[in-house]
Amino acid sequence: MKISLNWIKDYVALEASVEELSRALTLLGLEVEQIIRTGAPLLDQVFVGEVLVRDKHPNADKLSVCQVDLGSAGGVKTIVCGAQNYKVGDRVPVALAGAVLPGNFVIKQSKIRGQLSDGMMCSAKELGVAEDADGLLILAGRPALGTPINAVLPAGDVVFDLEITPNRPDCQSHLGIARELAAWFKLPLIYPQEKFRGKVEGTAHPELLHNVSVLSPEDCPLYTAHIIQGIKIGPSPAWLRERLTAVGLRPINNVVDVGNYVMLETGQPLHAFDARKLGGHQIVVRRAADGEKITTLDGKERTLSSRMLVIADAAQPVVIAGIMGGENSGVSADTTDLVLECAIFRRQTVRWTSKHLGLTSDSSYRYERGVDPHSALEAAYRAVDLILETAGGQVVGPVFQVGGDVPWKREIVVTHGYICDKLGFAIPAAEMRAALEALELTIAREEPAGARGPAWTVTIPSWRDDLDRPIDLVEEVLRLHGTDKIPTAVVNSPGLIGDDDPVVLFNRRVTDYLVGHDFHECVSYTLRSEKEISTWVSQTAAVELALANPFVDDQSHLRPTMIMGLLESLKLNQSRGVPVAQLGEVGRIFIERNGQNYECAAAGFVLAEPMGERRWLQREPADFYAAKKHVAALAAAAGIDLVRQPLVPVTGSFLGWQEGHSAAAGEMTQGWTARFGLLNLAMVRSLGLEGKIYAGIFAILPEKLTGEATRRRYADFSLMPAALRDFALVVDTAVQSDEVRKTLAKIARAAIGNAFALESVEVFDVYQGKGLPEGKKSLAFSLVFRSAERTLTDDEVNAVGQKIQDEIAKSTPWQIRK
Amino acid sequence: MQATLTALVAKAQTDLAALKTRPEFEAAKARLVGPNGELTALMKQMGTVPKDQRPAMGKLINETKTALQALLDAALGTIEAAELQAQLGPAVDATLPSPDAGPGTYHPLTLVREEMCRILRKVGFTVADGPEVETEYYCFDALNTPADHPARDTQDSFFFPPTARFGNVSKHSPDEKYLLRTHTSSVQIRTMLKGEPPIRIVSPGRTYRRDTTDATHSANFHQLECLYVDKNVTVRDLKALLDYIFGSLLGKATKTRFRPHYFSYTEPSFEVDLGATHLPKVKKEWIEIGGCGMVDSSVFAGVGYDPEVWSGYAFGMGLERLAMLLYGIDDIRYFYQNDLRFLKQFA
């Protein structure tokens, strides 16, 4: 909302500086987004002059030496000028010695390239009336020579562009803002003088308007129409044009301008019809028919629907209610008789219509936010006054009014003690009372309410529909007291039992792990493209994870993994020549299973070969087992021991992963899932990335996380020496080591019985090649035996070893490798 | 014999000094003091020494033995030192860079978030969490947001089709729509519904607005909100918290200022300005940093807390905005590009 300071001063005698006003508006909750100074500042020693002679400067190609007549302000002067856009006979602003132009530019008599100059002919920019300086300001209308320039230029003004919060529709007007400022500066608010006030002589004028009917009263709780006959359309007076121009509106003609002026003054939108264009001399407020058409003032044809409200004549819609008038019924140069509409339309109806037509206006903006129905007639009277003043004519017939018969009355009872309690500090009762009354929240009654001050019954004016409860008055008191004056205090923090959410603890643990293992933590966008998901994850995910209303095409779906974002960051760094190997991210991902989406807490990483980076000492590149270690650590942060979980080798159904070089564990039915290994080489290359990229991701349902793990109990351990035996088994290459390890452990335990313990079985060598048949590999395991009480003898361990060998030979397809 | 002994020591001195390896040493040791060694052989000759000379001879032999042992120890020491030296290889050039990657780095948003959480933890706020996919109830209705509020419009927020099903995001009523949360205030509602007052939580997290990405806007961004619910909570308490937070974060020279504002879920509501001209790149006297207010009684009523008994405040801010202010970053998109030259600056 743009507010003109000159305009505001009509209602409140402000003397504060622009800075003080800006601070006041800010602290009142009317955020100042911009301060625009318009028009000319007061300029001394700048007059209208006429160029009589323009000669080339003898010493400079681009300069001219002019003789300029300033008439009564000093006669003919010599001025050296560099501009090119003027000719002899033009009238221009001339600054003489002693003038101070904006930017503290002092004009003196001076010599320019050897030629004396008595002053300067000025551009609009030099005078501070425009942003651009395309040569001199050529004055239109040949103003009298020697006229002080301020008498010719538009007067200076300061325009505040304010952000008005949606709870304050009353501040969508100059009067509303003036009321706030008057309260802040403790000045009286002066309402405009009204003359007409609805008193009309005579009867209705049937030739101009027969009838007003409202067929959809829920959309239009109040409709009024005044008839003004015998007006003359013409340009508005200067003061009116200036006001509108200052706040960014283009003056059109006296009637339209008055409508806009009163809207900006009071917040009430108005609309004027040419009475003779209303077919059947009727106004019907009704829902549009589906498919009904209207061509609006902006020249566009609009197709309406039955949820939209229109003002129609006997035949067709003439206005989209509250939004914009039609081409066919507006005032034009030959209009002589007016119907002035002043109405209230339901906010939701206007909003819906405006949104669906993609059509907004100053009027619709105000209706959407709420217009006070109880001030509507005042605005209509004001508009009538101004139309009569600027366009002549007379009001004929009584005012048509439909609806508007629900009276306004609201009172809030609040005590001084309540307000102090809510604020946490005391404001004197007298100050509170004065604050409320300054905002026209009149105190209907004051009663004693114990030791903590009086109770007030506060009458709420109709334009403050936002004030409904005692707490709302706390805010009003605080606003006028000054929110910058809230006293400081210490934080009140009695202890609470509780810990951070388990998800937070998990996120922190995995982030610490990744960063501690040399990963760079990344943050990437949640929204990804459909193509990426169908290529890298699954077709069903690309369906289920879709947004209904994406903003851009490549951000249309929730991410089912963070690896794609990490690959993108990898690529960005590579393309910028920044070597990067290890990236990780922690955050939410969205996993689709069987048509259900699950929001998961997750951590993921990529391990790449740092392209383009040469090192003086080579290290082994990352491999599958590095990815496995990291994923196991991420799972451990969620309390899941990945080593004890069955691992599924990745097959073709896991898009994005390289078959035979990656694995998966867990399922959403268990509440978690992990994938890790080598990313599909061909797909990685299709992204423009080179080399082997290992990756891993662990995701878990937030509700599966339990926070701190249950406290572990200490388990006793043996101090006796261990006995070791190694077994190498020849197995088919397809056999997985863990299967062999588990079987071997089972056989060993059976062989030992209760004699002592099998402490561990670990694979320590994998061999394939020379000395072994084709299709076979050797897995070597180390078995550790230990007793809790004694040192084991060679004999007893050898006996167990023999039993194990026998059992392997008997019950497994594997051979002991000697 | 005395001459022989002296010669033995002299020869040993020369021989032992020339030894390079442990086998050579063992052989030399055996040759000198072993059972068949030269000294042993001389000692065996003691019987032939006249009785009166024996004490002097014995002493001489002992001295020789000691001298030889000292020579042997010295030789062994030299060999051991050479062995250790051999393990070392050439001296390192300490100025060569480590060929290993690292160190890892925390993202600046994580650093700022964790710092805020630590500051708030000190005054008893624990960190709460909630889903990013939300329903209209938790995101809007429970926060007193009217049905026709612009944020509820498909113009401004990301919605899911009515067919979308989220197995682990609970709905309040069966026919509400899922959307991406527009603020982390939904976590406040879920926390209040799950627990009992008093409550003191901070909820950082990712939020979404249907907005054009530019230097200051991003389709997803991060917020951090605080909720305090107790008895007799006042506007002054809220101001005290903000003074504490920003004093801790930016130093005692920092000022905070409230400006009256409007949010549907607080009354009164304020925007919070920071006066932090001591920070680099900060030129304006006041910078808008967040919004806050006293929890509206309708929000309490909605979660079943008696507004006559319980009162509270809420505060929310954008984490990117705070990080930009703290570090002097001027483009929000840098947070999401993950250029290493950016990420490495904040470790």
Brief sketch in words of this structure:
The complex is a heterodimer of chains A (818) and B (347). With 818 residues, chain A is of the alpha+beta class.
Task: Describe the overall structure.
The complex is a heterodimer of chains A (818) and B (347). Chain A has 818 residues and is of the alpha+beta class. Chain A folds into six domains: 2-39 and 157-185, Phenylalanyl-tRNA Synthetase, Chain B, domain 1 (2-Layer Sandwich); 46-151, OB fold (Dihydrolipoamide Acetyltransferase, E2P) (Beta Barrel); 211-403, Phenylalanyl-trna Synthetase, Chain B, domain 3 (Phenylalanyl-tRNA Synthetase, Chain B, domain 3); 411-485, Phenylalanyl-tRNA Synthetase, Chain B, domain 1 (2-Layer Sandwich), CATH 3.30.56; 502-612 and 619-704, BirA Bifunctional Protein, domain 2, CATH 3.30.930.10; 723-816, Ferrodoxin-fold anticodon-binding domain (Alpha-Beta Plaits, 2-Layer Sandwich). Helix content of chain A is 25%, strand content 28%. Chain A is built from 19 helices and 39 strands. Chain A has a seven-stranded mixed sheet with strand order 27-30-31-35-34-33-32, with helices on both faces. Chain A has a five-stranded antiparallel sheet with strand order 5-4-3-6-11, with no helix packed on it. A five-stranded mixed sheet of chain A has the order 13-16-19-20-21. In chain A, helix 12 (502-516) packs antiparallel against helix 16 and helix 18 (737-752) crosses helix 19 (794-811). Chain B is α+β, with helices and mostly antiparallel strands. Chain B has two domains: 2-88; 108-343, Bira Bifunctional Protein, Domain 2 (BirA Bifunctional Protein, domain 2), CATH 3.30.930. Chain B is 39% helix and 19% strand. In chain B, a hairpin with a 2-residue loop joins strand 6 and strand 7. Chain B is rod-shaped and about 125 Å long. The chains are: A alpha+beta (818), B alpha+beta (347).
Distance between the termini of chain A: 92 Å
Q: What proportion of the residues of chain B is helical, as a percent range?
A: 25-40%
Give start-end ranges of low-pLDDT stretches of chain A: none
Question: If classified by CATH, what would the architecture of the largest domain in chain A be?
Answer: 2-Layer Sandwich
- Write down the Rg of chain A: 42 Å
Largest sheet of chain A: 7 strands, mixed
Outline of chain B, from the CA principal axes?
A: rod-shaped
Percent of residues in helices of chain A comes to 25-40%
DSSP strand tally of chain A? 39
CATH topology name of the largest domain in chain B, in short, is BirA Bifunctional Protein, domain 2
- Which architecture name of the largest domain in chain B does CATH use? 2-Layer Sandwich
